[in-house]
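ARCHIVE CARD
CATEGORY: sequence design from structure
SOURCE FIELD: tokenized fold
FIELD CONTENT:
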């Protein structure tokens, strides 16, 4: 009996040593997916990553698709989410709220190797507008107040071009639609006269460019870009990062980051869905890449931007 007990104890110890160290500390892994399109499409686009992450980490992995950007941000701050792709402004808010909550690890790259994109001002072609200034006295649609391209960057750049984003000053009204997909649909349906969304600015307008909200809307059959016209393009914006929760076990971080970094080689179609269009994959990034956006967000929240 004593020998049996000793044998069982040794087997238990051996199993514990052989198991991944993070498996002893986490029982699940939760990935947040930013708003901007309907929840089912977000789930579908990221389901392949969920499955791969579950295989890699050896624990159940779930996707969470809050209705707005802040839902993901609060999930990361509260520790209920372990990883997510954030926009640069969303990362800035997370960092300014709690510098120890998350760390940026990877960033999407475009087909030309760059890791930037643009805020795009657009309208229906039958509006007759050729530039955003033509929408003076009309209704402008923003996406989400925590969106970099759907609010923060145009809120800084448009006033510098003489277009105040305060309702009633230059535009008759400025409305938040709730996300990028909602903005595109609102412009298409005439609920707003012009809107801003995001795209990499590469490839053809007719395709919604190579990646971004317009490309996803085209892929989903929501819009024909031949019915739309580009009115304004921002200066380049740094792509938002993949972030992971800082308090995750290092093994879990390492394995998840390696999975995402190698996703383009493992499954190109999966990488397309996760990246929102054509991509050359994900490359390492650090906090330093977002210091300018963090300062812009800090100033904007203080009313100085």
């Amino acid at each position: 009996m004593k020998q049996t007990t000793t044998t069982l104890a040794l087997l238990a110890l051996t199993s514990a040593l052989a198991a991944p160290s993070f498996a002893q500390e986490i029982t699940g892994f939760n990935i947040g997916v930013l708003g901007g399109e309907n929840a089912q499409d977000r789930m579908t686009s990221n389901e392949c990553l969920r499955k791969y992450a579950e295989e890699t980490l050896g624990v159940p992995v779930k996707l969470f698709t809050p209705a707005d950007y802040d839902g993901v941000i609060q999930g990361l701050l509260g520790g209920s989410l372990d990883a997510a792709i954030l926009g640069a402004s969303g990362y800035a808010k997370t960092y300014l709220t709690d510098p120890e909550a998350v760390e940026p690890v990877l960033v999407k790259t475009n087909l030309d190797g760059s890791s930037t994109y643009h805020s795009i001002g657009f309208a229906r072609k039958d509006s007759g507008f050729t530039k955003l200034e033509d929408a003076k006295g009309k209704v402008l649609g923003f996406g989400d107040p925590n969106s970099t391209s759907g609010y923060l960057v145009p809120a800084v750049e448009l006033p510098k071009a003489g277009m105040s984003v305060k309702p009633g000053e230059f535009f008759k009204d400025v409305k938040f639609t709730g996300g990028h997909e909602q903005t595109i649909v609102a412009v298409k349906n005439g609920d707003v006269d012009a809107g801003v969304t995001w795209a990499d600015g590469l490839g053809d307008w007719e395709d919604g460019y190579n990646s971004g909200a317009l490309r996803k809307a085209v892929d989903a059959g929501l819009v024909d870009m031949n019915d739309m016209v580009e009115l304004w393009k921002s200066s380049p914006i740094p792509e938002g990062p993949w972030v992971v929760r800082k308090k995750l076990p290092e093994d879990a971080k390492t394995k998840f980051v390696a999975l995402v970094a190698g996703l383009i080689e493992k499954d190109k179609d999966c990488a397309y869905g996760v990246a929102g269009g054509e991509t050359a994959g994900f490359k390492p990034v650090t906090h330093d890449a977002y210091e300018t956006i963090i300062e812009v967000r800090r100033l904007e929240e203080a009313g100085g931007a």
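CARD ANNOTATION: The mean pLDDT is 91. The longest helix spans residues 39-57.
SHELF: design records, drawer C
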